[in-house]
Amino acid sequence: MVGLPARGKSFISQKIRRYLSWLSVPTESFTQSSFRKKRAESLKFMDDELFDPLNEKGKKLRLLSHQDCMGAILNWFSNHQSGVAIYDGANITRDIRKKIKETLSSSDVQTLFLESYCDDESKVRANIQDINQTSPDYMDKTVEYTLADLKKKIRFYDSFYEPMNVEYEGDCTFIKVLNLSSEILINRIESYLQSRIVYYVMNLHVKPRYIWLSRHGESQYNLEGKIGGDADLSERGWKYARRLKDMAEKYIPNHGSLHVWTSTLTRTQQTASFLPYPKKTWKALDELDAGSCDGLTYEEIAERFPEDFKARDDNKFEYRYPGGESYRDVITRLEPIIMELENQENVLVITHQAVLRCIYAYFMNVHQEESPWMSIPLHTLIRLEIRAYDTLVTRIKADIPAVSTYKEKGTSKLGETRDNSKILAGDVISTGKS
Ligand SMILES: O=P(O)(O)OC[C@H]1O[C@@](CO)(OP(=O)(O)O)[C@@H](O)[C@@H]1O
Prior knowledge:
CATH topology of the largest domain: Rossmann fold
Bound molecules: 2,6-di-O-phosphono-beta-D-fructofuranose
Mean pLDDT: 92
Distance between the termini: 24 Å
Strand order of the largest sheet: 8-7-9-6-10-11-12
Oligomer: single chain
Number of strands: 12
Number of domains: 2
Number of helices: 16
Radius of gyration: 25 Å
Strand content: 5-15%
CATH architecture of the largest domain: 3-Layer(aba) Sandwich
């Protein structure tokens, strides 16, 4: 990363790390400031000395923390055949970038510089506000403190900042993001992975916003415990479809501009049928294809294909149904959906259990092995609040009972059917954090 403080470098780093990890590319982010803090603590160094351009000790400490960070990156590469290490630091001089490139290329590592250049004061200010509210570095500090501290650092770094340009660094591969917008300059993009990163960064948003998710209403197949298929909604499923309209009006603040996405399957389209908003149907949102097990109950699968049943329980993320899909396959086909969601302002996605797990795992940073086992109940509207440094989740459970479609590891039985008495009157709201 390249850029002055408060230019969204950590935000972009974290997003890229999450995106690539979700696509199964080993990715790690190394934050230079954490190495600097460690060094400063051990040397009993004050921040004031560190950001004084005339202070020789400060200069030395910055150099040491850079070396520590590079050491950690090289060490990480020695343990990984392939992958992406993100150096989250300022790296604002041509000299330091030249050294980074040389060091990495001597270890056979390609370098892609990603500069966040911003001279729009209002955007810098908004970013400082975000940093104050959500960055672990400033969690217990006032806005005034964060503002003063970051301004001091910006002034310091600005005195020797050399933005990237083709004239001086034409031989480098770089992406330059201008004013945290979709305006981007690129130079010498050479590999597929680099082009994925360019495309992803182009779709990124810094504005906080909500994404709304829901499974379809309870289907006839859900009632019978069957997987896959293209069944209609049950009576309670239709009830949820009607309720979803009221819930959208009640909970989605700017529902007037809402867009609804569904899969091509009947149950999601019936669920969306009362919503008076523009709709889009995506094949990519169809449920995980259960291949030759489509239309069976888990008990029938366990009985007829015991080896497959066990193999899926043992490694649910990788297991591919004969003639069907695995969770990994679903993630691959969901990539365009994620790109679009990163770009959109106000969308409600109505889809299926496995697909929602994959989308949820991306936004909530859930580990691959864990994601196929997450609980995504029926008749629940999920609100993801996408913020600069984390995602907040709120689940709004409609008071309409539904069967459980959750199967635990090691059993072929579904979870307990929720009975009416356990459903509280009114919607039940719960929250959590990524
Ligand atoms: O990966 P598991 O846990 O089997 O969950 C996926 C299953 O969920 C189901 C319901 O059991 O999805 P949905 O009703 O949301 O379309 C099945 O169709 C699908 O095969």
